[in-house]
C-alpha cells in the first residue's frame, strides 16, 4: 500500500465495543432480588410446616385458686352478751297498730330489760319495717343489740357506725306477732353469741 501512512509491526489492533456497565448493574440487582424472594419463601415454608401459621402467640396459663388445702377459716370469737338488766332500750312502734309499743315495752321490762322510752318510730322507719323487728345501735351497743334481738324471732340487728352510746332502739315491724318464748330466746342467744366464721375466699393465682 502506498501513501503517506503505513502500518508497521506484526500485531493488528482489535476493535472492541465499549463496556456496558449499566447492563451489569441491572443483572446484579435482579440476582439480589431473586435471592431475597427465595429466602423469604423459605422462611414462610418453615413457619407453615412448624404449625404456627406464621404467627407466634403466647397463651397464658389458666389461673388457679390460691387456696391452700391446709388453710381453714378462722372462727370468730364468741361475743359476750350482757344480761337483760344491762341493756337499755327504746321500744318504737313502726306499724299502724296502736298501742303496740307500750304492750311490748311492758313485756320486755318484765323480762328484766331497762326501757328508757316507748312510742312511735320516727318518719324514716314509720310503716317501713317489713320484718318482725329492726334492732339499731352504735358500735358500743352491739352486744346489747344482739341480746335484744334474741327476744324477737326474725329480727335484724343493724350497727350504725355514727351512733354514740350503748342504748338500743327496738323498732317493731309489720311481721311482728309476739315476743319469743324463753326457749326460742335461749336458742337465739347461743347463735348471737357465736357468729358464723367468715367464708374463705380464693383469689385467682396467675
Automatic annotation (TrEMBL):
It comes from Actinacidiphila reveromycinica. The lineage of its organism: Bacteria, Bacillati, Actinomycetota, Actinomycetes, Kitasatosporales. Residues 87-176 form the LytR/CpsA/Psr regulator C-terminal domain. The keyword Protein biosynthesis does not apply. The keyword Aminoacyl-tRNA synthetase does not apply. The chain crosses the membrane at residues 24-43. Residues 58-76 have a biased composition (Low complexity). Residues 57-76, 187-206 are annotated as: Disordered. This is LytR/CpsA/Psr regulator C-terminal domain-containing protein. Keywords: Membrane, Transmembrane, Transmembrane helix.
